[in-house]
Amino acid sequence: MAEVKAFKALRFTDKAGDISKNVCPPYDIISEEERLEYISESENNIIRLEKPVGEDAYNKAKQLYLEWREKGIIDTDAKEGYYVYEEEFEALGNQYKIKGIFAKVRIEEFEKGVVLPHEETLSKAKQDRFDLMCATHCNFSPIYCMYTDEKREITSIIDSMSKDAPEIEFTAKDGVIQRLWKSEDEQINGKVESLFKDKQLFIADGHHRYETALRFRNKLRDEGVIVDENHPANFIMMFLIDMENDGLVVFPTHRMITDLDSFNTEKALDGMKEYFDVEQIKESEIDEKLAMLVNKKANVLVSPDGEFYLSVMKDSAKEKLSKMNPDKSEAYKGLDVTVLHSLILENILGIDKENMAKQINLKYTRDKDEAINSVKTGKANCAFIINPTKVTEIKDVALAGEKMPQKSTYFYPKLITGLVMNLLSLY
After folding, report:
1. Residue 354 CA: distances (Å) to CA of 35, 226, 358, 361
2. Looking at 324-366, which runs of residues are DSSP E strands?
3. Which end of the chain is more exposed for a tag (fewer CB within 10 A), N or C?
4. Neighbours of 355 (CB within 10 A)
C-alpha cells in the first residue's frame, strides 16, 4: 500500500530572516491584495514562488528559486527525517489542534487504490501547477492526506516525536499557531515507514497538486529522466494525519446562484415541495436548524425577497435522486451536495452538470454571510446554505471509487506553505 518515507526537506535558512514573514497560505486561497501584502512583508516570502504572476511568470519563479538556493536563502537539511506539524486554532467557538507529519510519499495512480481522491478537479488550475512544477522541479506546498489508525500506533509515535519544545513556533497572520518538530531517529522513522505499508491515503486537500505530480512524473519518465524507482519525482510531499484526529474541522461551502435568465422564488419553492419538506425560518435560526438536521439532507434557500426557507428531503425523493445518479453509490447519493445539485440546481433551476463543473451560474463561499449578502445586494439570484460534509462521508465516497462535486469540502485551517519544501530533481 502506501510507501511513506522520511526526507531531507528544503527549508528557509537563517539568512532568509524571520520564518513567520516568509510563509503564506496555499496559492488557491490568496487574493491579489493578499499576495501583494505578503510580498511587501518580506523579500523572501514563498508567495513569490508559490504564486508567480505576470509575463513569463514561471520562468521568473525558476530564476528566483535558483537564486535563493545559490545564496543559501533556502537549503536542504543534512539528514532525513519526518517533520511533525501542528496547528492550533479557533473555529466554531472552540479551540482545536491538528497534528500530523510531513513525509514524502510514492506517487501512485488512483486506480491502484493506494491514494484515493474524493473531489473533481479543474484543468486550468492543474495546468498552472504543472507549468510551475516544470519550471522549478520543486514541490512548495504539501498535499493534505488522511489515513486510518484504529490502534493509534502512528499517533502515539507522532506524540513521542513532539514531546519536547518545537523547533519552530509562531502565530501566522490568520491567528493560527504553527509548530514544527523534526525526528531524525532512524529506528523510530523506520517504524513509521513500516506502519504505513498497509494504509490507504485519502486526499483531503490538494487534488490538483497530486494530479499535477502524476503528470510531471510521467513526463520525466517519457523523457528518460527518471531511470530508477528512487528518483525524487517518484515521490510527492504530503501532510499525513489520522482521520480520527479530534481537531479535524470541515467547513461547508455554500452555493451562490448567479446569472440565471430569471429566478422566481414561488416557482422554485413549488418545485422543491415535491421533494422536500419546506418551512420559512428566520435568518437567526439558520445555524441552529441546520445543526439539528446534520444527517437529514437539509439546506436553506436564501431568496431575493429577503426570506429564508429550510428544506429537508422527503424519503419519497430517493427514487428521483437515484434516477438522476444511476451509476452512483449510496455514499455519493447520500451527500448533502449531491441532493442540492441534483434535485434543486439541476432538476428545478435547470443548471446542468457541465455548467456547474465550469462554475457557470454557480459560485462558492465558505462564508455564510457572504452568501446571504450576495443575494441581498443582487449579485446572486439566490443562495443555498448547507451543512459541512463529514469526514466519514469523504472516506466512503473515496472507497467507492467516486468523486464528489467540486467544492464539497473545505478543511480548516489550510496548511501553511513554506515551512518545508520538497525537491523533485537531483540538482
Report:
1. 31, 37, 6, 11
2. 362-365
3. C
4. 15
Q: Answer for the pair 21, 42: CB distance below 8 angstroms, yes or no.
A: yes
DSSP annotation of 341? I
What's the pTM value of the predicted model, to 2 decimals? 0.92
Residues 105-114 have pLDDT tens digits of 999 999 999 9
pLDDT at 119: 86
Pick from 104, 106, 116, 110: nearest CA to 228: 106
- What b/e readout covers 99-127, taking b as 16+ CB neighbours within 10 angstroms? bbbbbbbbbbebeeebbbbbbebeeebbe
Kindly tell me the sign of the dihedral angle through the C-alpha atoms of 378, 379, 381, 383: negative
Q: State the residue for C-alpha cell 513500516.
A: 194
Name the fold adopted by 253-387.
3.30.1760
**Could you read off the pLDDT of 133-149 as tens digits, one per residue?**
999 999 999 999 999 99
Residue 297 · residue 317 · CB < 8 Å:
no
Q: What Cα–Cα distance (Å) separates residue 158 from each residue in 174, 256, 415? A: 25, 41, 18
Nearest to 88 by CA among 98, 78, 80: 98
Cell 513509521 sits at which residue? Answer: 192
Question: In this structure, are strands 177-183 and 82-91 parallel, antiparallel, or unpaired?
Answer: antiparallel
E strand spans, 314-368: 362-365
Q: What angle do CA 259, 31, 251 make, to 5 degrees?
A: 75
User: pLDDT digit string (tens) for 396-407?
Assistant: 999 999 999 888
Do 240 and 101 contact (CB within 8 A), yes or no? yes
Q: What is the pLDDT of residues 356-390, one digit of tens each?
A: 877 789 999 999 999 999 999 999 999 999 999 99
* Contact in structure between 52 and 30 (CB atoms under 8 Å): no
Mark 166-179 as b/e (b = at least 16 C-beta within 10 Å): bebebebeeebebb
Are the C-beta atoms of residues 421 and 9 closer than 8 Å to each other? yes
Joined together, the cell numbers standing for residue 231 give: 528518483
Instruction: Lowest mean pLDDT of 78-87, 119-128, 196-205, 403-412, name the range.
Output: 119-128
Q: Domain limits of the chain?
A: 4-249+412-423, 253-387
For the record, the C-alpha cell of 229 comes out as 524507482
What span, in angstroms and rounded, lies between the C-alpha atoms of 341 and 173?
35
pLDDT of residue 353: 81
